[in-house]
Amino acid sequence: MRSKPISGLYAVTPETPDADWLCARVATVLEGGARIIQYRSKGVDARRRRQQAGRLLELCRARAALLIVNDDVVLARELRADGVHLGREDTPPEFAREALGDAALIGVSCYNSLARAREAQINGANYVAFGSFFPSAVKPEAVRAPLDLLRAARAVLDLPIVAIGGITPDNGRSLIEAGADALAVISALFQVPDSGAAARILTSLFAARDEHLSVDADT
Question: Per residue in 13-23, pLDDT tens?
Fold first, then answer.
């Protein structure tokens, strides 16, 4: 995975104080094919955040998956998580790199801005995320990004590109075809009756791309 770690299904955790429920759902999503888990929690206290994130790290380690911590560089460093994901108001990526070291994966939210993505690449980010591409129940006020942004970013960036925002099995393929390396998903994974089945469907969207890449490598 380290050759291209940010690729495939990228699961972002929902808000919940229930660590048992969260871990059970994340385990199912990992079994369904998710390669990356981002722990995102804004509404619980620091002690519970560390407990939840620690348990998720154990799950990810057992399944050779990555754990990325949203926003919190200190928590990522304490846990020795695989990396951190940073938004506009968070720690700048160059400072996160200083705190976490060269091996950490640092992702940056770029919303609908290719200029911000270029800056993130210069400042040492390992991947960038664009969106929201579709209406999002998690962030209904989020700025919308056009599909063509992925094509433009693919042409000028040397980093993996993550698409986020309202992604479902029905619309995810268009994002992959436009250039997304990974799909970051919350509701379509965790707010459904069968998270494992949802993960398998979303993971299957990458099959055609991976087959094409395999053919290119052999020719």
Answer: 999 999 999 99
Q: How many domains does the chain have?
A: 1
Backbone angles phi, psi at 111, to 5 degrees: 55, -110
Beta carbons within 8 Å of 194's beta carbon, 6+ residues apart: none
In a domain, 1, yes or no: no
Give the whole-angstrom CA distance, residue 186 versus residue 184. 7
96-148: pLDDT as tens digits: 999 999 999 999 999 999 999 999 999 999 999 999 999 988 888 889 999 99
- Please report the pLDDT score of residue 3 as a whole number: 40
Residue 92 lies in a domain: yes
Q: Does any domain span residue 132?
A: yes
Q: Which domain holds residue 171?
A: 8-218
Better-predicted residue by pLDDT, 160 or 137:
160
In-domain check, residue 12: yes
**CATH value at residue 160:** 3.20.20.70
Q: Determine whether 92 is exposed, middle or buried from the number of CB atoms within 10 Å of its CB (0-12, 13-18, 19+).
A: middle
Residue type, 30: L
Do 161 and 179 touch, CB atoms closer than 8 A? yes
Active site residues: 40, 109, 139
